[in-house]
Design a protein that fits this description.
488 residues, alpha+beta, four-stranded mixed beta sheet, 19 helices
C-alpha cells in the first residue's frame, strides 16, 4: 500500500510539473492574453512588423523612416514596458526620455565615446582577457561550479569599465552594491521583482565620489562635461550605461551563446579543434544573436502619416500618425531563413554581408543603433575562447530572457568532465531538474506578478504623477505628450 501511495504521489508530482512546463512552453500566448487586458493604454492599436501582410522589407523601411522614431507621442502614451517600469521605479535611470531626439541622448553618446574612444581594439582585447582571467581565478575554485552566467559576468563588465575610467578595480564593497542594483533591474525587466531605489542612489553617490577624486584622462573628460550638463546628470548616465546596461547585455548575450554551445556539442568540439578560428567564432556569435536577439521587440510611435510604397505591401498602405509600430526582432530574424528555428552556424558561410540578410541585432544605421556594438563583439570574441578552452558547459535552459535566475548552467573543468563520465550523467539529470523548477517558477510569477504590476500602476496613477513632475521641473517640453500615462 505504501508503495502504491508513493507511486501515486510521484505520478501526481510529475503531472503537475508537466502541466507547468506546458504552460511555460506556451508562455508567449499567456503574455499576449495579459497584454490584451491593458490595450487601452494607447489611443491606436499596435501595428506589428513583420506580419502576414507586411514582411521584412516593410520592417526595414519603417525602421529607417524618420517619422517612426519616438517612444513618446502626442495623443497617446509612453510606450514599451513603461507601466511596469513606473510601478517598480526603474524610470529614473532607464531613460525613456533618451528615446527622444534631445540633448540627453547626445550627451550619453559623448559619455560612451569618452570611455571607449581613447582605447584601440588591441588594448581593449588585452583588457578583456586580463579581466576574464582575474574574474575566473577569483570566483572559480574547484572543478565545477553552478552559476547564473548573466550574474557571474556582470561584475566582470563593471571592472572593465572601472579600469578604463579610473585606472583600477572597484572595491569589493562597492562592486557588491553595484551588482545588487543590476540584479534588481534585471528582475524588473523580466517582471520578476521590484527595484530598490536606495541601492541605485547609493551607487550613484559612490560613483560621484570616485569620479571627483580620480585624475585619469577619462575622468577629466567626463568632469569637463559639467559646463554643458550637471555632473549629477553625467554620473547617472554613466552608471546607467556602463554599470547597468553594459553588464546586463554582456551577460545575456554571452549566456545565450554558452547555452547554445551546451546543447550543440558538435559546434563546441569544432571550435576547440580549429583552435577557436575567428571566422567560426563570429558565425557562432551571429547565429546566437539571430535566434536570441538582445531585444525581442522594439516599439516606436509614428509622428506623422506614412504611405507605404506599392512594391512593399499588397495590403495596408497607410500608417496613421499616432500609431504604435511594434518591431518584432525575433520574427524578423527568422524571415527568409531556411530552418530558421535551428541553430546552424554553417548558414553564415554563404552570407557575404550582414546587410544581405534579415539580421539587425544592434539596430539599424540611421535610427539610433546600439552604440556598444563594436565593444560587445570584441568582448564575445574574447570570452567564448576563454571559457570553452577551460570549461565544458552543462545546461538545459532554452532561453534566459524570462528566467529569474538568468539561466542556470554548470561549468565543469574540461579534464574533470572527460574523466568522470558517470558523474557527468548524474549532474546532467540534476541540471534538468533545476531547469524544470525554473520553468514552474516563471509561470507562477508571470500569472501573479505581471497583472499585479499593471493594476497597481493604473490604480495609483504613477505614470501621470511622474511625468507631471518632469514637466514642472522643465525636463519635458510638452505636457500633452505625457499626460495620458496612467489615466487611460
Amino acid at each position: 500500500v505504501l508503495l502504491v501511495n508513493c507511486a501515486i504521489l510521484a505520478l501526481s508530482f510529475v503531472s503537475i510539473c508537466a502541466f507547468f512546463v506546458h504552460l511555460y512552453d506556451n508562455l508567449d500566448s499567456l503574455k499576449v492574453a495579459i497584454e490584451k487586458l491593458f490595450t487601452s493604454s494607447t489611443s491606436n492599436p499596435d501595428i506589428h512588423v513583420p506580419s502576414e501582410t507586411m514582411g521584412a522589407d516593410v520592417y526595414r523601411y519603417l525602421y529607417q523612416h524618420r517619422a517612426v522614431r519616438r517612444r513618446n507621442i502626442p495623443d497617446g502614451a509612453v510606450l514599451s514596458e513603461l507601466t511596469p517600469y513606473i510601478v517598480v521605479g526603474v524610470h529614473a535611470q532607464h531613460g525613456d526620455l533618451l528615446e527622444n531626439e534631445d540633448p540627453t541622448h547626445k550627451h550619453l553618446l559623448r559619455i560612451i565615446k569618452s570611455v571607449y574612444g581613447n582605447i584601440d581594439d588591441g588594448n581593449l582585447r588585452s583588457l578583456f582577457r586580463e579581466c576574464l582571467a582575474e574574474h575566473f581565478d577569483d570566483n572559480f575554485t574547484g572543478s565545477l561550479k553552478i552559476v547564473s552566467l548573466r550574474s557571474f559576468i556582470a561584475p566582470l563588465a563593471m571592472q572593465v569599465s572601472s579600469k578604463i575610467i579610473f585606472g583600477g578595480n572597484l572595491e569589493k564593497e562597492h562592486l557588491s552594491k553595484f551588482c545588487s542594483v543590476v540584479e534588481s533591474v534585471a528582475h524588473v525587466l523580466k517582471l520578476r521583482g521590484t527595484h530598490r531605489h536606495t541601492d541605485f542612489d547609493k551607487a550613484v553617490e559612490i560613483l560621484t565620489e570616485k569620479l571627483r577624486k580620480s585624475e585619469s584622462d577619462v575622468s577629466k573628460q567626463l568632469k569637463a562635461m559639467e559646463c554643458d550638463f550637471p555632473l549629477d546628470h553625467t554620473i547617472r548616465c554613466l552608471f546607467s550605461s556602463m554599470y547597468m546596461a553594459q553588464p546586463v547585455q554582456f551577460g545575456e548575450s554571452l549566456s545565450h551563446i554558452i547555452l547554445e554551445l551546451a546543447r550543440n556539442e558538435e559546434v563546441r568540439d569544432k571550435l576547440r579543434e580549429t583552435n577557436f578560428n575567428p571566422g567560426l567564432v563570429n558565425m557562432v556569435i551571429n547565429e546566437s544573436l539571430r535566434l536570441k536577439p538582445l531585444s525581442g521587440t522594439t516599439r516606436r510611435g509614428v509622428v506623422k502619416d506614412i504611405i507605404l510604397p506599392d512594391h512593399l505591401t499588397s495590403g495596408r498602405r497607410l500608417i496613421p500618425a499616432g500609431s504604435i509600430v511594434v518591431f518584432n526582432v525575433v520574427r524578423f530574424h527568422r524571415e527568409n531563413w531556411l530552418n530558421a528555428d535551428k541553430f546552424c552556424t554553417e548558414r553564415w558561410e554563404r552570407v557575404e554581408s550582414e546587410k544581405d540578410v534579415n539580421y539587425l541585432p544592434f539596430g539599424i544605421l540611421g535610427n539610433r543603433p546600439c552604440p556598444g556594438e563594436k565593444i560587445a563583439k570584441i568582448f564575445l570574441q574574447e570570452a567564448i575562447p576563454f571559457i570553452l578552452s577551460k570549461y565544458t558547459p552543462i545546461s538545459y535552459s532554452a532561453n534566459l530572457r524570462l528566467l529569474p535566475s538568468g539561466g542556470v548552467m554548470m561549468l565543469v573543468g574540461r579534464q574533470f568532465h572527460d574523466s568522470h563520465p558517470t558523474l557527468m550523467r548524474l549532474l546532467k539529470v540534476l541540471m534538468r531538474l533545476i531547469d524544470w523548477a525554473d520553468r514552474i517558477r516563471i509561470v507562477l510569477l508571470t500569472i501573479i506578478f505581471c497583472p499585479m504590476c499593471f493594476y497597481i500602476s493604473r490604480h495609483l496613477g504613477l505614470g501621470t504623477k511622474y511625468y507631471e513632475k518632469l514637466y514642472r521641473a522643465g525636463l519635458v517640453e510638452d505636457k500633452r505628450i505625457y499626460n495620458n500615462v496612467g489615466q487611460k
